[in-house]
Amino acid sequence: CNSVAFTEEHILHFYFLAGADFVMGPDADYSVRNVFGIAQANPELGARVVRCRHLGAQMLHIISGKSIHPVTAVPGGFSKPLAETERQKLLPMAEEVLEFAKWTIAFAKENIFPKFLDVVKSLGVIETGFLGTVGPDGSLNCYDGKLRLMKTDGTYTDFNYDQYLDFISEKVLPWSYMKFPYAKSWGEGFDLDLNAPKGIYRTNTLARINVCDNISTPLAQAELEAFRS
């Protein structure tokens, strides 16, 4: 269910929101830097984008009762098992979305990455640590596992959730209602100076990729190896 949600959400993010700036180019007029501009420039691609996001919503509806705010996910699992007829209905949808994902990464490698790689390497570079969850073998895990806190030099410490306060603390600053977590176990304190940050770590997608040793599915593992090469 979560994998389907990730797929649907990332189609929304890449093709409908942020990615349109890359597909159409940052110099394009803002009026075409959106999914409608993509559809006009490449009608076949636009149709695939809309269809695959629709398939993602359909799969979520089958698995979880609703495509938005699923109702079958409850503490401890799901309140409704997946019937065999539903599984059979999901298979061709999943295969189509998988093929679209493979096409998307190939398209990005050929048309997007070469144009912006130099910019990505030099724009907004900040040296921080990373935090993410990994499985017992160090593989990417988005659901459970150990917390891996990695320093800027690539060294890391794994710890369990009940050890969180031994490694992470929070800082309160007068100009924000938000608390700022930082890695107290590093013993360097807290500083948001972009040129010399202290105790700062990043989380979410790139952090998960950076802290894991591998990814358990073969296609994703191949892309991870290419990404790190």
Automatic annotation (TrEMBL):
Annotated keywords: Metal-binding, Nickel, Oxidoreductase
Keyword Oxidoreductase listed: yes
NADP in keyword set: no
Cofactor(s) this protein requires: Ni(2+)
GO molecular function, one term: metal ion binding
InterPro entries noted in UniProt: NiFe-Hase_large
The family this protein is said to belong to: Belongs to the [NiFe]/[NiFeSe] hydrogenase large subunit family.
Protein name: Uncharacterized protein
Organism: marine sediment metagenome
